[in-house]
Design a protein that fits this description.
Elements (H helix, E strand, L loop, with lengths): L1 H42 L1 E7 L6 E2 L5 E2 L1 H12 L3 E7 L2 H9 L5 E7 L2 H4 L2 E3 L4 E3 L1 E6 L18 E3 L3 H9 L9 E3 L4 H9 L5 E5 H7 L6 E6 L4 E8 L3 H16 L2 H10 L7 H13 L1 H15 L3 H12 L19 H6 L8 H18 L8 H12 L1 H13 L7 H7 L6 H4 L9 H24 L1
Parallel strand pairs: 1-4, 1-5, 9-10
Antiparallel strand pairs: 2-3, 5-13, 6-13, 7-13, 8-11, 8-12
């Protein structure tokens, strides 16, 4: 019995030592991993690698930075008490290489989760769903309906992208499929080359296409290449604590409605696209805008507005026609009512310069009247709506939003409420009664769209 006891006591001792060793290793790994997040907080700087693109990160005309990814990163950095520092790469390939080398804490660049990427990185939670689409010119004859119909068409994608990975996966089903990969061409450049007829087709995510089709209206979706897949931030394999923090933050960001607000800010005005109207607008930028451009700039500068926004509003009002007149009696390039024109000291509504200056001043007055808790850019969108259908109707919409349990200071909520002002069960309870709210919503969307197109066109000159 003594020998047996000694034998098992040795086994117990070995087990205890092994457990202690594993426990030590486990906790050393846990400690090492925890420093991924704590080190970021200690240095007070969150390093993020991204790329310069309208869907991710870009510099505005005022010298400030913007972008869907940029705003999300700013919010997360604030959540963990740090300041972000962005490293900008030209292509997805360069971006992922930089992340793999440990040059950044994570990559925020509209990345989809793929099998190849999962071998090197872990991903945070999805925040936006997109699908890959084959994009060609609308005058491509015949426009392919599937990969089997490509034949002699030239298909080019950027290398080391999810698009290239997807094509490799599909080649087993389409053995005759051929394409080229470019290491130094990003997706936006490829879309431009399709538009210029330098290549036949490329592949892009649906959100990238939605923004860029306004700049290159002849491009169109031939067919989808994937079902919807989520975009997510990528990080190194040892960054689980950082990933968990992102997960917790994003859940709160969503539940507070902040993600919806952000999505609406960048994509909310892109749900409709009118090819003919876009083409006409681009022609008038060259033909009519030069006659009035200096006055838009002067009026905007005097009233602290973006002149592109003012010009876009004027186009929506009158198509830059100084003699424009509506059936309701509003006139001029900014379509002023007679009482508003008199209030602003306009002697002739057909005088383009005074009309532009008065319109700018009136827009600013409306913006200043709004409650101080309404922040930009929502403040400007609401002021534009008020310019269109009256300040009184806008205040009705704000009150109705409160009654319906919606957020009265967010345009994304007010935009939903405004069309209800044409329904009797709602407008009969409001001070200013019936309003054609749907037109006001369309009005703001069009101005936002025109402003973006104009900004892009100006950059090309």
């Amino acid at each position: 019995m003594v020998l047996s006891f000694k034998k098992y006591s040795w086994l117990w001792l070995i087990a205890i030592v092994a457990f202690a060793a594993l426990y030590t290793v486990y906790h050393s790994i846990r400690f090492e991993q925890s420093t991924v997040l704590t080190d970021i907080q200690k240095r007070g700087e969150l390093i993020v690698v991204t790329r310069n693109a309208p869907t991710t990160y870009y510099e505005t005309h005022t010298g400030q930075f913007a972008g869907f990814e940029y705003d999300m990163v700013m919010a997360f950095a604030d959540h963990i008490g740090t300041k972000p520092r962005f490293i900008v790469k030209d292509t997805i390939n360069e971006l992922l290489e930089a992340l793999a080398k440990g040059e950044a804490d994570f990559a925020a660049a509209g990345l989809t989760i793929t099998e190849q990427r999962n071998k090197t990185f872990i991903f945070g939670p999805g925040y936006q769903n997109v699908r890959q689409q084959v994009v060609c010119r609308r005058d491509t004859k015949p426009l392919p309906g599937s990969l089997s119909e490509f034949n002699s068409l030239k298909l080019i994608v950027s290398s080391k992208t999810s698009y290239a990975e997807r094509l490799w996966e599909l080649q087993a089903d389409y053995p005759g499929l051929k394409w080229e990969q470019k290491t130094d061409w990003d997706t936006e450049l490829l879309l431009k080359k399709v538009w210029q007829k330098k290549i036949d087709c490329t592949v892009t995510d649906s959100n990238v296409f939605a923004i860029n089709r306004r700049y290159y209206p002849e491009i169109t979706v031939a067919f989808p290449l994937t079902e919807e897949t989520p975009l997510a931030w990528a990080m190194l394999k040892n960054a689980h604590p950082l990933r968990n923090e992102i997960q917790d933050w994003l859940e709160g960001f969503k539940s507070e409605g902040q993600l919806e607000v952000l999505y609406h800010r960048y994509y909310g005005h892109l749900d409709t696209f009118d090819y003919i109207d876009t083409q006409k607008f681009k022609k008038q930028i060259k033909k009519r805008l030069p006659h009035y451009r200096k006055w838009f700039k002067q009026a905007a500068r005097k009233n602290k507005l973006d002149w592109r926004l003012l010009a876009a509003q004027s186009y929506q009002e009158s198509h830059w026609n100084r003699l424009a007149k509506s059936p309701t009696g509003v006139r001029g390039i900014m379509m002023l009512t007679l009482p508003t024109a008199k209030q602003l000291g306009v002697k002739s509504r057909l005088d383009a310069k005074s009309n532009i200056f008065a319109g700018a001043r009136y827009l600013v007055q409306l913006r200043q009247r709004l409650p101080g808790v309404i922040k930009e850019p929502d403040r400007t969108w609401m002021a534009l709506a008020a310019y269109n259908f009256g300040y009184g109707h806008l205040t009705d919409a704000i009150e109705l939003a409160k009654k319906l349990g919606k957020h009265p200071t967010r345009w994304v909520d007010i935009e939903e409420v405004i069309p209800l002002l044409s329904q009797k069960k709602y407008y009969q309870t409001l001070k200013h009664g019936y309003a054609r709210g749907g037109e006001a919503v369309h009005y703001v969307k069009q101005i936002r769209d025109y402003r973006d197109i104009l900004t892009e066109q100006i950059k090309k000159k």
